[in-house]
Amino acid sequence: MKIWVDADACPKPIKEILYQVAQRRQIVTTLVANRYLVPPKSRWLRSIQVALGADVADLEIVRLLEAGDLVVTADIPLAAAVIEKGGQALDPRGDFFSTENIRERLSLRNFMDELRAGGVETGGPASFSAADKQNFANQLDRFLARGD
Questions:
Q1: What confidence category does residue 148 fall into, taking pLDDT thresholds of 50, 70 and 90?
Q2: Alpha helices, DSSP H only, in 2-129?
Q3: How many C-beta atoms surround the C-beta of residue 105 within 10 A?
C-alpha cells in the first residue's frame, strides 16, 4: 500500500502527521501538487509536481493509484474516482469517503455549486482545528492498524 496526498490544499499539520507515519511505518507517501513541494528527506517521502490547471493533480493521482492505496484529499470528485478504482479516500478532517456515502457527498457538492453559481452565499468550510487534526490522526492509525 502507498499513500497519495492531494497536497495543494492539504493542511500543514496533516502533512506533518503523514511524514511521521511514512517514516515510522515505512510506507511510501507521495505528495502531488501543481507547485514545488519539498518533503523532509526520507526514502519513504516523495513529491510530484504537475502542471497548473484544474484537476491535473487529481488525474495524476488516479493514474498512479493502485487498488488498496490510500489517498488523502478533501476533493469529493477525486475521492469518488479513488473509490471507483479500488482505493481508500480519507479527508484531512478524518472522515473516510466510502461507496455508501460518496454519492450523497457528490450530490450535496453539486447542489452547493449550483447555489453559488446562482449568486447564493453558502460560506466555506469551518476553519481547520486541533480536533480535526486529532480525528485525522486517529482514523489514519485505525486504518493502518487494520492492515497489520
A1: low
A2: 12-25, 56-64, 76-84, 102-117
A3: 17
